[in-house]
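Protein record
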Amino acid sequence: MEQASWMCSGLRWSAAQGPVLEWDGGRRSALVRGKRVAFGVAGGGVRTCIGARGHACPVRAPVPGRSLGGRCEECARLDRAHSVAADTLADDPRPYRVYLAWFGTGLVKVGITAEERGSARLLEQGAVCFSWLGTGPLMAARRTEELLRAALRVPDRIPYADKRAVRSALPGTEGERSAELERLHAQALALPAWPDSLTPAPCRPVDHVHAFGLTGLPPAAGEVTELVAGAALHGQLLAAAGPDLHLRTPDGVVVLDTRLLRGWPLIPATDDAPPLPIREPKPAHPPQEGLF
């Protein structure tokens, strides 16, 4: 008899509920620290495209195991066709917030999010702490983002490998973690080209160390590279930050990027299943000091 499988549609964060895995059909699994996480990939299973914008992929196209998007080229194009991140929604009338997010020493980025989303975007990115910088129309928020990149050399992207590499060695107090953020916030508000339509916000750092479970987090011994048919993963949840789960396994702490789950038929793990492929964590890149 063929075993029933579940299809993961992604990890969702909210300030009230914390991290939750969502499954096709509306099922949800709360991710509570200390919980045992165990799943396998159905033998002979194939990863298929998760579709776009609430619609299934019409051809159920196969997707590479290491793809973090989980979509075929056509569905990825459709998903980005109405995306703020892809600059395709210039006429969006909603108010937007500009934020500064800190992930570790020397790892600060600037970004924007719709005001109605609250802090969900920061939780999704794994921001250790953040502060709002201002609120206004979308294009004013975009200009502010560009201003910080040009004037203060603050990037709008930080690789996840760099975020993961520093999570187990963060400063111990909220004040230490927010110090760099506060300095950059003051420099940003002092810039002379600040857009008139963006209302500045005071620096009020929000710390996510407790929400993520990062206090005392051991260094990662490995990272899951991809899911493969017939393999499994067992572990105890130590921390969840952004899309990443830090799991204590018999071989040490392993990081699972839950974006790798999407599109795979998942089943309960069996003890005799081989482990998922694991690689050593990549070291963080030092902060860039200049253009050349």
